[in-house]
Specification:
The chain is of the alpha+beta class. The chain has a single domain, classed as Alpha-Beta Plaits (2-Layer Sandwich). It is built from 3 helices and 4 strands. A hairpin with an 8-residue loop joins strand 2 and strand 3. The longest helix is centred in the last third of the chain and has 18 residues, at 107-124. The chain is elongated, with a radius of gyration of 23 Å.
Length: 140
């Protein structure tokens, strides 16, 4: 009898009911939207120990090139990256800014991203601005 007691099943608690809320939205900030992108742009602001783009220069670039194209909001993170080219013995290291923008996946919004990348390369002389994206659903 004692051996069978160890096999008895313990009733599981029911999963909590999903929280439901009525979200109020406006056309610029939908309660739920599909077909959006999370775009991440990586901007080099200087090699380790050097600062060719200072904080004030970065803010000016955001104000002049990014905010007018994406006035509904964005996020910026400090980042640090490295890479090893085939002809290098030690990795290249670079302090960076990671810009994250959530936006509808439209040709217009993609063109805005490209314009930001081009402006940065033109202004700084950098060869590239990495752009990665993924499809997301959003809710405001």
């Amino acid at each position: 009898m004692l051996a069978l007691a160890g096999c008895a099943s313990v009733p599981r608690e029911a999963a909590p009911a999903p929280v439901t809320a009525t979200l109020h939205d406006d056309p610029a900030h939908p309660a739920l939207a599909t077909g959006w992108l999370r775009s991440e742009l990586y901007f080099g602001v200087g090699p380790d120990g050097d600062a060719p783009v200072d904080p004030a220069g970065w803010r000016q670039f955001l104000d002049r090139e990014v905010t007018p194209r994406f006035p509904d909001g964005l996020s910026v993170f400090d980042a640090y990256g490295q890479w090893l080219s085939r002809d290098q013995a030690t990795p290249g290291r670079l302090r960076s800014k990671l810009l994250v923008i959530l936006h509808p996946d439209t040709p217009e919004h993609r063109a805005r991203i490209d314009a930001i990348r081009l402006a940065w390369k033109r202004e700084t002389g950098h060869q590239s601005v990495l752009w990665s994206w993924q499809r997301v659903d959003v809710s405001f």
